[in-house]
Amino acid sequence: xxxxxxxxxxxxxxxxxxxxxxxxxxxxxxxxxxxxxxxxxxxxxxxxxxxxxxxxxxxxxxxxxxxxxxxxxxxxxxxxxxxxxxxxxxxxxxxxxxxxxxxxxxxxxxxxxxxxxxxxxxxxxxxxxxxxxxxxxxxxxxxxxxxxxxxxxxxxxxxxxxxxxxxxxxxxxxxxxxxxxxxxxxxxxxxxxxxxxxxxxxxxxxxxxxxxxxxxxxxxxxxxxxxxxxxxxxxxxxxxxxxxxxxxxxxxxxxxxxxxxxxxxxxxxxxxxxxxxxxxxxxxxxx
Length: 287
Hints:
The chain is of the alpha+beta class. The chain has helices at 8-11, 58-64, 83-91, 111-116, 130-138, 177-198, 204-221, 230-248, and strands spanning 2-5, 21-25, 33-40, 44-46, 70-75, 101-106, 125-129, 152-156, 163-166, 170-171, 262-264, 269-273, 285-286. β9 and β10 (170-171) form a beta hairpin. α6 runs parallel beside α8 and α7 runs antiparallel to α8 (230-248). The model has no long low-confidence stretch (mean pLDDT 86).
């Protein structure tokens, strides 16, 4: 990874300027890389909420049958209250897959609980695409906007079923299918890379035929906390079939899905940034 700045002459060039610095990354192999921006937040255990409009208020919870215990996360409190708009700007960039920019809220607040779940933390974490949070806020009546220099609370039950957002209050509808979709995408990426390495070997067809059985076994032994494997295995098996067809027709191996990951092309990725945005708190993962 390297960073480049512009000369004053280059900055003023209307064709190539318009930014102060670029972050560049070139893959170290002949395969494409993948990029995710994961903004982790640490939560605090709350027995109940005193906010009158909260789903976790005792009187409200008793009526609806929802437990009062939950985890409270604070967001948009970093980078002088501009972290959310910075993430939003990142997700809206043309070279970035929008849903690869996510908040990650681990629903774990005790050390013993954390240690007992090492190796399966993904099942107790909520993945929230930044733009989906904005979309649900905008769809409220009247429409709401997450603005700079205003911190907000994201409250969610330990089972991940009930969640809400305040400074202003609105119920956030969390689709836990994102875990299945994210995992299946990551597995397809690894399958793509494996096939590209082995495609010239004679036993590649045999390997592809064995993959559906291996995926089912993997689900039963490692991902058994997922209650429904249908959407999970369908995505993977559909991709394997596309690879089988490509090998049979001697065409290029298709790219794995890229809903939650940004593809880094073989010739690299350049992110052009300006100094008005504070990217110091943004985390990223390349693989």
